[in-house]
Amino acid sequence: MITLGLCQIKVGDASPAGTMPGTMNKIGKTYQDTAKINQDKAEVTEHYEEGHAAPEVRKKKKKIPKVVFSIMNADVQMLADYIGGTVVDGKWCFDGDEIVANKAVLVESEQGLNFEIPNGDIEAVINADMSAKGIFLVDFEVTPMAVSAGKALRAYPKATLVVSPTSLTFTAAADSTGKTLTVTSTGNLTYAGAPQSEDWITVTRSGKVATVKVAANPNSEARSTNVTLVADGKTVIVPVTQAGA
Question: Range(s) for CATH 2.60.40.10 in the chain?
Answer without folding.
Answer: 162-242
